[in-house]
Amino acid sequence: MREGVIYVATGADYLELARASAESLRAVAPHLAVDLFTDQPVATGLFDRVHPVERVHARAKLECMARSRFERTLYLDCDTLVVGDPSDGFDLLERFDLALAHDVRRASALIRAGLDEQTPYPFPQLNAGVVFYRMTGAVRAFLGEWAARFHASGQPRDQVVLKDMLWRTDLRLYVLPPEYNLRRLTMLDAWEPLDARVKIIHSHRLLDHLRVPGARRVRSLEELLALERAAHEKEWRAAGVPPGGRAAHLTGGRG
């Protein structure tokens, strides 16, 4: 098929998240084909096709992405909610091979990190939880190399390897605007009415019930926003920056 979406979910908990994300996708883009790669039994109905994960590990997506049956694919992490039809992202693949968004925390060492390449500040890691890609021979080879380099690196995060590869690649890369991979939900409180139309929300808060003792399963956008707003204030307090000093903190004191 020409266009479609894939999820990769290993384990029952991630399968539940993938189902919730796919249901949100179906609600806004029922015309899109949706495939799942998993090691779990899955009832028919929600996904068009279910494929086995041949190598189960924490970054199993790296092998599965290259097995997409679509000419143009949108890969989505399981901790996503689709709130607007993302189909126009496939139009980018008329001109580009890959499209991803910048990661957040771009001033941190975590998101600056690469293996061999020292890149300038405007080239941080790109977030690999939302990826549009065109399945050409060159892209398939790139995905295979990404998987191989990740396993050889010993890194826990695949984006460290990806950053180096994107810096060197001859593939045509497009950087998505944040509304296609909205990691910092508090941007919704700052944007004006004509600034953006959000397509995909991607939040680790959707995973907190799996890794944070006592955390509840987030099941609505309203819950998610409340948690993100509270976390936003907590981060600023931890940095010791009062509300009136935030602009100066971010700009180095420049007016």
Find the structural class using helix and strand composition. Answer: alpha/beta
Average pLDDT over all residues: 95
Separate helix tally: 9
Number of E-state strands: 9
Annotated CATH architecture of the domain at 3-180: Alpha-Beta Complex
Q: Point out poorly predicted stretches.
A: none
CATH topology of the domain at 3-180: Spore Coat Polysaccharide Biosynthesis Protein SpsA, Chain A
Spatially, the strands of the biggest sheet line up as 3-2-1-4-7-6-8
The dominant shape is globular
Largest sheet: 7 strands, mixed
Write the element-wise H/E pattern from the N-terminal end onward: EHEEHEEEHEHHEHEHHH
The CATH class of the domain at 3-180 turns out to be Alpha Beta
What does this structure look like?
With 255 residues, the protein is an alpha/beta fold. The chain has a domain at 3-180: Spore Coat Polysaccharide Biosynthesis Protein SpsA, Chain A, CATH 3.90.550. Helices cover 33% and strands 18% of the residues. It is built from 9 helices and 9 strands. The protein has helices at 12-28, 61-64, 109-112, 137-153, 158-168, 187-190, 208-211, 221-238, 246-251; strands spanning 3-9, 33-38, 49-52, 72-76, 80-82, 98-102, 126-134, 173-176, 200-202. The protein has a 7-stranded mixed β-sheet, sandwiched between helices. A two-stranded antiparallel sheet has the order 5-9. Helix 4 (137-153) packs across helix 5. The longest helix is centred in the last third of the chain and has 18 residues, at 221-238. 34% of the residues are buried. The mean pLDDT is 95.
